[in-house]
Amino acid sequence: MQVNNEGEHLAAKALGDYLIQNNGRVVTAESCTGGLIGGALTSVAGSSKWFDRGWITYTNTAKHEQLGVSKETLREFGAVSEPVARQMAVGALAMASEATLALSVTGIAGPGGGTPDKPVGLVWFGLARRTEDDVVVSSIHQVFPGNRQAVREATVNFALMHALQWIDQRI
C-alpha cells in the first residue's frame, strides 16, 4: 500500500504547520485505516512537535475500552456510524491532555462487510477541537469507490484535507 503519496504529504505538512503556528497538537483514532493517518502525519519531519499519539481501535471492544465509545451507541448504531465517529474523536481528545485536535475514522473498506444501508466504501469522519471553554465536534461521511486499498487511501487523503478545511474555517 502506498502510505504517503504527494497529496497526503502536503496535507500532513500543512496541518502540522497550522498546529505549530497555533500551539496545537493532534491525535488520531482510527479503525478502517489501521494507523495510516498517523503514518501519514508522522512521515513529516518534525511531526513530534505537533503529533501527540494515535489509537487503532479496530474492534468495538477497543473503541469502548480505549476511547470510551458507549456500548449502547455501538449496539444501536453500529461501529460505522456518525455517533461512533464523534465519540471516537471526543474520546481521543479526552485521553490526550495536550491535544487540541482529534481526528477519527470508522468505515467499511471491503471487500466484504457492506450492506444496503452501509455499503463498502462508507467512512464516517469525526473531528473534535478543544477550545478554552468547550469541545467542538463535527462529523461527515463519504462513500469511496474502489477496492480496499483505494478506499483506505482515499480515506487518509480526505481525512487530512477535511481536517485542514475544518480548522481553517472553524466549522
TrEMBL record:
Residues 12-163 form the CinA C-terminal domain. Coiled coil: none annotated. InterPro entries: CinA-like_C (IPR036653), CinA_C (IPR008136). This is CinA family protein. It comes from Orrella daihaiensis.
